[in-house]
Structures are given as structure tokens and as C-alpha cells.
Amino acid sequence: MSELSLPAPVSLPNRLLRLYAGLALYGAAVALLIESRLGGSPWDVFHQGLTVHLGLSIGTWIILVGALVMLLWIPLRQKPGVGTLSNVLFLGLFADAALRLLPAPDPLAARWAFLLAGVVATAAATALYIGAGLGPGPRDGIMTGLVRLGLSIRLARTLIEVTVLAAGWLLGGTVGVGTVVFALAVGPLTQFFTPMLGLRHPAARS
């Protein structure tokens, strides 16, 4: 049995629902973080840096970077699934759609609400679509690969986010207090949502 697995057999329609609900929620989370203007997630900082230098929308870069990140799966011996390909194809589209629909709030309290909602939604979405058992997204495939090597979900996710943040900052992406909050909180929150939304980690077994 793999280190990350569904706790019990679940029907395919149920798993597909988890997958696409998770991707839609993740796209909304990206938009919430960006519209907060307090600093996006480390990956969004990276995508923004690419946008600054090369143009194209945030969603377009999410798609392109997701496809390229899958090359890192080779040394980690990760295998893509329907969920992986769906992530590459649809996450950027969901993010761009949410960015067009969400307002950009002006009051600082509203911007903080967007930020916190975006962080929580990211963690919940990650556990939801990985919990579908149809393959992690390209970025989270790196996380699950590191978990298979013995790291906790919390540590693996945090290491990835900090590394990507540094690269995005060097490219000129916007870094703010929200970026710091995201980098520190998303790992523990993903660990928290994991048993609630369909995943099980060996460290949590007793």
C-alpha cells in the first residue's frame, strides 16, 4: 500500500467530484490570494515573476509551469494520473476565471479576509483533490514524492514553498506579508485537512 491512500474504497464518480471540486477551489484560492494584494502564495509569486518578464496571464503560467514541473517527477518515480493531467489542463483556467469574477477589495480588513480564506482554501483543496486518489497535481506530486522518501506532509510542503518563493522573488514577483503567512501556514493546514478530506498519512496512524 502506498504512503498516501484513500481510507476506504470510493466510487469513481465520487472521486471525480472530489478532484474537480478541489481544482475549482484551488483556482478560487489563487484568485483570493492575488486579489488580496498582500502577497500571493510562493507559486503565485513565481508565476507573477514570469508574467513580469514574459507576459501571459497567471492562469496560463500555471498551466505551462505545471507541465514543466512534471519533469521533476522522473527522479522521484512519481506516476501521473487523471488528476495530474486535469490539474495541468484546468487549474489555470479555474484561476483565470475566478480572477475575472472576484472583486479587488480596498479595505484592509477585507484584503486580510481574502488572504486568510485563500490560504485555508489552498490547503483544503490540496487534500481534497489528492484524496480523490486519481493522481496529485504536478506541484503536489513533488510533495507526495518527498513524503514517500520519509518526510512529513508538513515538512515536504513547507520546503517546496520556501524554495519556490525564493525563485519567484528573484524573478521579480511580489512578496508581502501574505506570502509569509502562506509559506508558514499551508503545510500544517494541509496536514490538518488530510484526514478530514480523504487522505491518510502513516505518521497519523496509531
TrEMBL record:
Keywords, comma-separated and alphabetical? Membrane, Transmembrane, Transmembrane helix
Q: Report if keyword Oxidoreductase is assigned.
A: no
Concerning InterPro entries, the annotation shows:
YczE/YyaS-like
Asked if Iron is a keyword of the record, the answer is no
Organism's domain of life? Answer: Bacteria
Question: Which sequence ranges are marked TM in the entry?
Answer: 16-34, 54-74, 81-102, 108-130
Q: Pfam families, from UniProt? A: DUF6198
Q: What is this protein called?
A: YitT family protein
User: In which organism is this protein found?
Assistant: Planomonospora corallina
Could you read off the lineage of the organism from its UniProt record?
Answer: Bacteria, Bacillati, Actinomycetota, Actinomycetes, Streptosporangiales
